[in-house]
Amino acid sequence: MTDHAHTNCEELLSSLSLYIDGELNPELCHELEKHLAGCDNCRVVLNTTKRTLDLVHAPIEKLDVPEDVRERLFKRLKLDDYLNQKS
Amino acid sequence: MNKTMSLEISLEALIAGDRAEFARLVDTYSGPIYRLGLRMLGTPQDAEDVLQNTFLNVLTHLSTFEGRSSLSTWLYRIAANEALMLIRKKKPEVNMDDAQAGENDEDLLPTQFVDWSALPEDELLSGEGKQILDAAIQTLPEAMRIVFVLRDVEGLSIKETADALNLTETNVKTRLLRARMFLREQLSMYYGERITREE
Predict the structure, then answer these.
(1) Could you tell me the residue range of the domain that residue A37 belongs to?
(2) Which residues of A touch B158 (CB under 8 A)?
(3) What Cα–Cα distance (Å) separates residue A31 from each residue in A9, A16, A34, B170?
(4) Distance separating alpha carbons of residues A20 and B171, to the nearest angstrom
(5) Does a structural domain hold residue A35?
(6) What is the arithmetic mean of pLDDT over B35-59?
(7) Digit-coded pLDDT (tens) for A52-80
(8) Which residue of B has its CA nearest to A78?
(9) Closest CA to B23 of A37, A71, A36
(10) Residue B158 phi, psi (nearest 5)
(11) Could A82 and B113 be called an inter-chain contact, meaning their C-beta atoms sit closer than 8 Å?
(12) Residues 6+ away with beta carbon under 8 Å from B91
């Protein structure tokens, strides 16, 4: 990490994922936040990782199973009788 | 797929061979399983194969389901296995052990430090940005991608993901971190370049 020379960065980076999920233990959480306050690069990594996940979770057109795929599935499972009873 | 939905399905009725209940199960879980297939294999045809094989398998093994995991975790386990088996069949050269999942620490180290997180929402969600993300997900090693899809796309917990994939929770956390770091790097290269161009 040549552009990112703080000694703690690598170590704390491994906690980033748990921190974002709110699953990091309080002690490490405190340590990470203290580090983040003084490390621009780590803050950028944190913010852009969060944004990456926002994008993953962004409400895009919900991809449903196409009707012809559902029909073939029901036929394969011998569920033809229930094709018109979508729950 | 959430717990409320899975609670509505009667396991008792399913095991007793209730076809209407099985049809409800299929309709409830088809979407997530089809999407998992698409994310893992990349084509609608393969996603359909994953979907069909998963439910054929469910039908065969339902009577032996012991309820040690939730019904949804069990379904995800079958679907993940089907997807990974199909990948192995189509790409025998793909190695899906831990080494393939990137145990090298250097994979983790960020190289991109442009802060694009403040870009406006509509710019981030532009078709192109989403495409870059989708393409990047497709390039994740399979062992890492399946963890990412279950946890971050489908919203399973770490424990549910570990149960579905027969991995330890530590292993899931490691793969998830690597997947997220990899995707962040890819998006940072894209948005970073755009920001630099605009300046």
Answers:
(1) 9-82
(2) 21, 23
(3) 11, 12, 5, 21
(4) 18
(5) yes
(6) 96
(7) 999 888 765 567 899 999 999 999 999 99
(8) B19
(9) A71
(10) -60, -45
(11) no
(12) none
| Inter-chain residue contact B56 with A74, CB threshold 8 Å | no
Assigned domain for A65 exists: yes
Q: Look at residue A57 and tell me if it is in a domain.
A: yes
CB neighbours of B39 closer than 8 A, spacing ≥ 6? B137, B145, B149, B153
Map residue A8 onto helix, strand or coil. Answer: coil
CATH fold of the domain at B105-198: Arc Repressor Mutant, subunit A (1.10.10)
pLDDT category of residue B196 using cuts at 50, 70 and 90: confident
CA count, 13 A, side-chain hemisphere, B42: 12
How many domains does chain A fold into? 1
ipTM of the complex: 0.85
Q: What pLDDT is attached to residue B20?
A: 94
Both tokens of B158, joined, read 């770490």
CA distance B27 to B18: 15
- Return the domain boundaries, chain B: 3-90, 105-198
Correct CATH for B3-90 of 1.20.1540.10, 2.60.40.10, 1.10.10.10, 1.10.1740.10: 1.10.1740.10
3-state secondary structure of B52: helix
Q: Pick from A1, A57, A63: which is nearest to B109 by CB?
A: A1
- Give the single-character DSSP code of B139: T
Within a domain: A78: yes
**Cα dihedral angle (B161, B167, B173, B178), rounded to 10 degrees?**
-100
- Alpha carbon of A31: minimum distance to chain B alpha carbons (Å): 19
pTM score, two decimals? 0.88
